[in-house]
């Protein structure tokens, strides 16, 4: 046997190298005993690992039919995705993207449920501060078209016998229609003291007349020159008078074909030929 440090030959029973003092590996019997002990420990570990593996496999095979892995999935947010504020529009908490039972009610080309009782009703305004959904149908299950801000004006133009509490309305642009929950409408505009500018009394019989002013006549959202202009009605264009303003009887609420579609608004009646 030779020293692992300096290479000098060492006797089998010598514990240290006589040249460098490095400990020897011990006697041959001791080396053999250490090897046997290491082999026994290794065999015991292998047997233990095999037993554990067989047990685990048996558990999985015995419970494979009813075993389910539990995974915590975060709940889907109910926040309306189109909202830019922290408040949600009233009458709903979840944005619905599909229309249920749409086949049971007639719809127009845009997929909006049609009323079964058309009418020309009152002017309403959105009352809640957080706004109100304009929907495709008369119920919360229908998809929303937009969110109407507080004070948005609209005209009641129909309802359905099977949907109490819902009103079919047209906005003041004369084009946008949809359904709103009647409970959140008001006769008074919450955003202005001039709500009478947008309220009118309608005639029992509509009157057709023409514009006399050669420069044309402005169609406005309310019974005042301070109200937003929707367009200019050309000279000699026929308009239909629906009613007159409760604020100023000289201002008439009319419908007119303008810019490729029928629009609704107010005009100064003194520029019409009766």
Question: Can you describe this structure?
Answer:
This protein starts with 27 loop residues before the first helix and ends with a strand. It has 274 residues and is an alpha+beta fold. It has one helix spanning 28-62, and strands at 117-118, 123-126, 132-135, 144-148, 153-159, 166-171, 177-181, 185-186, 200-211, 217-220, 229-233, 238-245, 251-258, 261-268, 272-273. It has 1 helix and 15 strands. It is rod-shaped. The protein has 3 domains: 1-58, no CATH class; 102-186, SH3 Domains (SH3 type barrels); 200-273, SH3 type barrels (Roll).
List the helices and strands and how they pair.
Blueprint (H helix, E strand, L loop, with lengths): L27 H35 L54 E2 L4 E4 L5 E4 L8 E5 L4 E7 L6 E6 L5 E5 L3 E2 L13 E12 L5 E4 L8 E5 L4 E8 L5 E8 L2 E8 L3 E2 L1
Antiparallel strand pairs: 1-5, 2-5, 2-8, 3-4, 5-6, 6-7, 9-12, 9-15, 10-11, 12-13, 13-14
What key phrases describe this protein's structure?
single chain, 274 residues, alpha+beta, SH3 type barrels, 6-stranded antiparallel β-sheet, 13% helix
């Amino acid at each position: 046997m030779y020293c692992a440090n300096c290479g000098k030959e060492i006797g089998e029973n010598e514990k240290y190298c006589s040249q460098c003092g490095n400990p020897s590996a011990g006697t041959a019997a001791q080396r053999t005993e250490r090897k046997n002990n290491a082999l026994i420990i290794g065999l015991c570990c292998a047997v233990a690992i095999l037993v554990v593996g067989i047990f685990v496999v048996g558990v999985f095979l015995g419970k494979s039919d009813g075993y389910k892995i539990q995974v915590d999935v975060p709940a889907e947010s109910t926040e309306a995705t189109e909202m830019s504020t922290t408040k949600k529009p009233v009458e709903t908490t979840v944005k619905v993207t599909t229309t249920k039972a749409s086949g049971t009610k007639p719809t127009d080309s845009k997929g909006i449920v049609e009323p079964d009782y058309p009418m020309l009703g009152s002017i309403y305004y959105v009352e809640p501060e957080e706004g109100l959904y304009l929907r495709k149908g008369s119920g919360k299950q229908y998809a929303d078209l937009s969110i109407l801000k507080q004070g948005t004006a609209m005209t009641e133009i129909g309802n359905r016998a099977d949907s109490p509490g819902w009103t079919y309305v047209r906005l003041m642009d004369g084009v946008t229609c949809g359904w709103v929950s009647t409970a959140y409408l008001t006769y008074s505009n919450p955003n202005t003291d001039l709500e009478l500018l947008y309220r009118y009394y309608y005639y029992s019989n509509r009157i057709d007349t023409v514009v006399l002013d050669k420069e044309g006549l402005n169609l406005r959202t309310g019974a005042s020159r301070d109200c937003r202009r929707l367009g200019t009605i050309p000279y000699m264009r026929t308009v239909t008078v629906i009613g007159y303003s409760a604020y100023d009887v000289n201002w008439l609420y009319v419908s007119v074909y303008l810019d490729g579609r029928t629009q609704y608004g107010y005009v100064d009646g003194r520029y019409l030929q009766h």
